[in-house]
Design goal:
The chain is of the alpha+beta class. The chain is about 35% helix and about 15% strand.
Length: about 950
């Protein structure tokens, strides 16, 4: 290990070695994976299973504060060196660092030696902080260290000691000297195996600076090389003794080790079982009947302090509500700060967001600190209680009413009780765990918008983002795979490791209203208008709406649209006392592609903070909100404007703008002439009763392209009178020996699928398939014979293959099997699954992996289309993907098997094979409006 650390040397500063953080991070991962060790990211241990004096498996407790050891019953005592407080180190990367080795600071007495010490490009703030006594001591230290670092930075900036330098970014966690030591089997204070073994537990080893050694030795273990020496001691453990079964007592689960707070009684049930892992064992551990302490009470609990949560907590606290915000990372701001997307890509400019940015920039200008510190400053001035490095893992419910959340603390699980909860996790975690009905990704499967795992180059706050594939954040194995793959897919030189993976999409709660693409493009207005989003369509991944599949897409990639979001879209229909903000609110997949920009989600969070605070203080129900009174407040807050209120004047419930028959006829004339833009086209389609007679009338007089456009609109609306003209146009498009490419607009530079762009022929096939027209079946076979899968980057061939699958599974006709079989046998498509247990680094081969992932999805689509048409081969293909390492593919295969058979045999391929062996296979056309496909409970 020491030689490995030495090999990670990037430079030297005096007698110090500056490590290359990328080599260190990836090298440590490689060493773990090369040994066959299971590696998981994004898991937060919060309990142990015990049988007498044993944990039920040999356990290495490597958490800094020995929290797992304490949960298991290990005793600890305070170190003498901690009597004067805790020594912590907070380091920040500097742009244009000063040349001198240390910078003097006079205004921060907690700063050791009154100096900020430079280590190459890194500035170290070494601070001595007072110890507290709460369950959130670590968070208190974390925030204090950041506040004091900012105070020191202000002095350095004002004195000119920084020169032209600035602080680019800081570490997520503090490096802290140990304040406690376990009560061990050793009495000598030396680093031995017995010093790592708690006295009260037989098969647990502590592998952290909290081992029972002298204070000076413990302080040395904090350093990288010191940690390596501790690992050497642990490696000599007597495995046979540790793994011996020593107790016959029935196992019990411990989720807390000491009173965490008030211990107040709380009516309700804790639910935290919605993780829904794909890769699980057959075993289960019951934790029923365990009492959890109420560790804090508040008016408003904001879960997540990212893009939406940070503004929500600011506004709730400013309006006088006792507010607690919990955040699982050390910094606030989410995607905009630690996510590396430091620029605003679209989003509506509002006074509210401008004010937050102005306040954050003022602090950044004074201190030369990065945006995460500016956002933290804005939040803390509002005076909520902020708890960092705290994960909320469950909801407390009493029937449909949420009364708080279950959180992980260093002492175990506890409950924060609240009158109102704002779920700002971005994934709807708390609402889902409370039992809210949700959708996930597209209606069809577990595909979502591509995730982002930003990569930092130098000190640039704007990180490089990639659009590789999808991740299923409900499954820890898939999250880990995505992080490992994301580290290794590099678009440029990377110099700083990332920890924050951003799924652009996951769950959507079912709100009292679900905003659709038709609502957006037809400019629907809502009586309970909450905010207005503005951006371009940016479908990074599969489209999902019928409009998109039929070619009603925006070909100008930079054109912006506005969409109204009603209050009902952030309130789960089946829960009380909770609002859901961020990308998990109630919109369709394709609408989220537009209505997810940071400015808009910040405004949404601010609006929710206002609603929750005022509702909690007044004791009014979130379900019976006075929309007009709310909108007046939102204008004062700067989320809405007076002009916005004028746009909904006289609207009842939700309504399309009024349109006369003459205006509709004029639009249809423009459609026939090829002069009508997308919003006008959708305004026709949004009024089927009035539009169909006028479209038929126009079709009878049209020819050429005009005839095809009018026919497409009729077929989309379910009228077969347009079918002959559409088939004629399809025959013309496919008359050449090769398949035509995309003929309109500026083609996306990304791999397809992207933006909903595809060749015109595929749009016509999809439209006719929705209509149920089997006349397209010969065209599917013709396309299949002409398809040649791309070898490096997915393009138009992807669209053709997907369109054949789309059509076949909606027709459910055995006549489609020929085309599907031809495609399934193509080289480059066949055999694309990656079995569970494969090294996750295999999914990290840059552009090749991106192409392979997309074609693997197509093979899965071929499998389910074959099954829908009555072919057993389709079931066999899905069983291969049931075991795939990529979580979205495994989950999609499972959900389709359930939908086809009515059974749920989990992810056990052998059980499915046994069941299918005797099952009768018959065609079962896919209906996207079936309840099981439209909405599914997750988990």
């Amino acid at each position: 290990m020491k030689s490995f650390l030495t090999s990670c040397k990037e430079s030297s500063a005096g007698d110090e070695i500056i490590l290359d953080m990328i080599k260190l991070t990836e090298g440590m991962e490689d060493r773990i994976l090369d040994k066959g060790v299971g590696l998981y990211y994004d898991l937060h241990p919060c309990g142990v299973q015990m049988a007498g004096r044993d944990v039920t498996a040999v356990l290495f407790a490597c958490t800094p504060g020995a929290s797992l050891a304490a949960l298991a019953g290990a005793g600890t005592r305070r170190r003498e060196s901690a009597t004067k407080g805790t020594v912590v180190r907070y380091s920040m990367l500097c742009a244009n660092p000063p040349k001198q080795p240390a910078l003097t600071v006079k205004t921060v007495p907690q700063l050791a030696g009154g100096r900020v010490v430079m280590h190459g490009d890194f500035a170290e703030f070494r601070l001595r902080l007072a110890e507290g006594g709460s369950a959130f001591d670590g968070s208190v230290r974390d925030l204090a260290a950041r506040r004091l670092a900012a105070t020191a930075a202000i002095e350095l900036k004002q004195s000119g000691a920084l020169g032209s330098g600035a602080f680019a970014r800081g570490g997520d966690v503090l490096l802290a000297d140990p304040t406690r030591r376990i009560v061990s089997r050793s009495a000598g204070g030396k680093l031995t195996l017995d010093a790592c073994r708690p006295k009260e537990i037989d098969n647990l080893l502590v592998c952290s600076p909290t081992v029972d050694v002298d204070d000076a030795v413990a302080a040395a273990l904090v350093e990288p090389l010191g940690g390596a020496s501790l690992a050497d001691v642990i490696a000599r453990a007597p495995w046979s003794e540790l793994s011996r079964k020593q107790s016959v007592q029935a196992p019990t689960v411990r989720l807390s080790c000491a009173p965490l707070g008030s211990g107040k009684a709380l009516k309700g049930q804790a639910r935290f079982t919605e993780l829904s892992p794909i890769y699980r064992t057959s075993g289960a551990i019951s934790i029923g009947g365990i009492q959890l302490d109420v560790i804090a009470d508040c008016d408003v609990l904001v879960v997540g302090a990212g893009t939406s949560g940070m503004p929500a907590a600011v506004v709730a606290a400013q309006r006088g509500a006792d507010t607690i915000a919990v955040e699982k990372y050390g910094d606030v701001g989410g995607t905009h700060t630690i996510g590396g997307v430091s620029k605003y890509w679209y989003g509506r400019r509002t006074e509210f967001v401008n004010r937050i940015d102005k306040d954050a920039k003022a602090m950044m200008t004074r201190s030369a600190m990065p945006k995460c510190m500016g956002m933290l400053s804005v939040l803390m001035r509002a005076r909520p209680r902020l708890v960092t490095h705290c994960l909320a893992v469950g909801a407390v419910v009493d029937g449909p009413t949420i009364s708080g959340a279950v959180v992980v603390t260093p002492r175990g699980l506890g409950i924060i009780r609240a009158k109102r909860v704002i779920d700002a996790t971005g994934d709807g975690d708390i609402a889902a765990r409370a039992g809210a009905e949700t959708e996930y990704g597209t209606r069809r499967d577990a595909m979502t918008l591509w995730y982002s795992f930003a990569q930092y180059s130098g000190t640039n706050p704007e990180a490089a983002r990639h659009f590789a594939y999808v991740v299923d954040p409900r499954d820890p194995t898939d999250m880990t795979r995505a992080i490992i793959a994301g580290r290794r897919y590099k678009r440029r030189k990377v110099s700083f490791p990332q920890v924050y993976l951003t799924p652009r999409e996951s769950r959507h709660i079912r709100g009292a209203y679900r905003v659709t693409v038709a609502d957006l493009l037809a400019e629907r207005r809502f009586e309970d208008l909450l905010l207005i989003c503005r951006a371009n369509f940016d479908i990074k991944g599969m489209g999902d709406s019928d409009l998109t599949f039929s070619g009603y897409v925006e070909w100008s990639r930079l054109k912006e649209y506005s969409v109204q979001i009603p209050y009902r879209a952030i309130r789960p229909v089946d829960l009380e006392n909770i609002l859901v903000v961020g990308k998990a609110y109630s919109v369709s997949h394709d609408v989220l592609a537009l209505a997810r920009m940071q400015r808009d989600l910040m405004a949404m969070g601010g609006a929710a903070g206002l609603i929750a605070a005022d509702s909690a203080r007044a004791g009014t129900s979130l379900a019976r909100l006075d929309a007009k009174a709310l909108q007046v407040k939102l204008v004062k807050l700067g989320v809405l404007s007076q002009d916005d209120l004028q746009s909904i004047k006289g609207v009842r419930d939700n309504a399309l703008p009024p349109m006369s028959k003459d205006e509709l006829r004029r639009l249809i004339g423009q459609l026939a002439a090829g002069e009508l833009k997308l919003d006008g086209q959708v305004n026709i389609l949004a009024r089927p009763k009035a539009a169909i007679p006028l479209l038929k009338e126009a079709l009878a007089q049209a020819d050429g392209k005009a005839k095809a456009e009018l026919a497409r609109a009729l077929c989309f609306l379910g009228d077969p009178n347009g079918s002959p003209a559409l088939l004629e146009e399809l025959r013309r498009l496919l008359s050449d020996k090769t398949l035509p490419g995309i003929s309109r607009g500026r083609v996306t530079p990304h791999h397809l699928p992207d933006q909903g762009f595809a060749p015109d022929a595929t749009y016509l096939i999809n439209t006719l398939a929705r209509l149920g027209d089997r006349s397209i079946i010969p065209f599917l076979a013709d396309i299949a014979k002409k398809v040649e899968p791309e070898t490096h980057k997915t393009g138009t061939m992807f669209s053709y293959i997907f369109s054949v699958c789309y059509a076949a599974e909606r027709l459910g006709a055995p006549g489609c099997i020929e085309a599907l079989t031809i495609l399934a046998d193509k080289q480059g498509i066949r055999g694309g699954s990656i079995p569970r247990g494969t090294d996750p680094r295999r999914t990290a081969r840059g552009l090749v992996s991106m192409r392979d992932d997309r074609y693997a999805y197509l093979e899965l689509c071929l499998g389910r289309a074959l099954a829908r048409c009555g072919s057993r081969r389709g079931y066999r293909i899905m069983l291969e993907y049931l075991q795939d390492i990529r979580g979205s593919l495994a989950r999609s295969a499972h959900d389709e098997l359930v939908a086809l058979t009515g059974l749920d045999l989990g992810y056990d391929a052998n059980a499915w094979r046994a069941s299918l062996r005797s099952a009768k296979v018959v065609p079962k056309p896919y209906r996207h409006d079936a309840p099981a496909a439209r909405r599914q409970r997750v988990g």
